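Consortium newsletter contribution from the modelling node. Members have asked for a concrete example of what our holo predictions look like. Here is one, prepared for the flavin-adenine dinucleotide complex that several groups have been discussing at recent meetings.
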Amino acid sequence: MEKVLILGAGPAGLSAALYAARAELSPLVLTGTEMGGQASLTHTIENYPGFPEGIAGAELGELFRQQAERFGARFEYDLATAVDLSQRPFKVRTYSNEYLAETLIIATGASPNHLNVPKESELTGRGVSYCATCDGWFFKDKKVVVVGGGDSALEEGLFLTRYATDVTVIHRRDQLRAGAILQKRARENPKIHFIWDTVVSEILGNGVVNGVRLKNVKTGETRDLETDGVFIFIGHTPNTQLFQGQLDMTPQGYIVTDMQMRTSVEGVFAAGEVMDPHYRQVVTSAGMGAAAAIEATRFLEAHSSE
Ligand SMILES: Cc1cc2nc3c(=O)[nH]c(=O)nc-3n(C[C@H](O)[C@H](O)[C@H](O)COP(=O)(O)OP(=O)(O)OC[C@H]3O[C@@H](n4cnc5c(N)ncnc54)[C@H](O)[C@@H]3O)c2cc1C
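And here is the predicted structure:
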């Protein structure tokens, strides 16, 4: 029986683990497949306070983990595959185990959206990627396209200019959503070009990517563009399928919580991108993870005599 079981080891889950560990609750974290979460996929994080020169995403995740472990957090490299939240203790099943938990903190984050166009899945890992830090190196002296117009698209596009000779950002609107500093850096980078009002309607290539078919959303005109790689950064979907029907969710699938990170089931808390479509940052996710652990601690204190 776990006092606090945490699902997810991104900034939210690891911060929750730190706070629950410092409350001497010896939390268990089921990490899923991505220790450090999405943050570990990005090359440099420049907006997490305390690191004036920035820090590699993977390194920050590892520091979060070490700090939580120092106070007694435990980690299982396992994935939750089913949950039963109908009564306490809650049940969480993984491929190899079943856990019982007095409180549950859900911090399963979000996964990148796919374009859902022909050949996208077939060519994933063969030129199609959702992670510049992981795959950028393979595109040394090659041409790549980046799909998207938000912070992630520009951050990762800028990172790709280290390797690629040419980075073309394809955006379905005529204005970027990314922050001003990133926009300025991208526009001033001679390797970055923009194609506006355009979507990728198909990925081209036999066995490996050699181009994309583009469609101008204003004129309907289509054309093919040669490229060696397609990096897709068009938003995320919360990882909440496991909890469908058991917790209140928004129509977009985010878990609904109140200000204390409490979900619709007493004793179940949620933090980070699994419940937050608005801020989606390391610092905000970490803050929500801390809040969830504080609330779980209070909940356990209030129910200690049961
Ligand atoms: C390319 C990129 C660049 C970014 N750059 C920045 C930046 O510069 N600054 C910034 O502040 N933010 C940045 N972000 C956003 C930031 O990474 C996220 O806001 C943050 O990681 C969200 O944290 P989280 O803990 O809520 O979820 P996530 O980081 O998504 O972590 C989810 C965790 O849940 C686990 N998990 C999932 N399903 C299960 C399951 N069934 N069972 C158990 N575990 C599970 C995963 O393995 C993972 O450990 C970037 C994101 C991306 C993708």
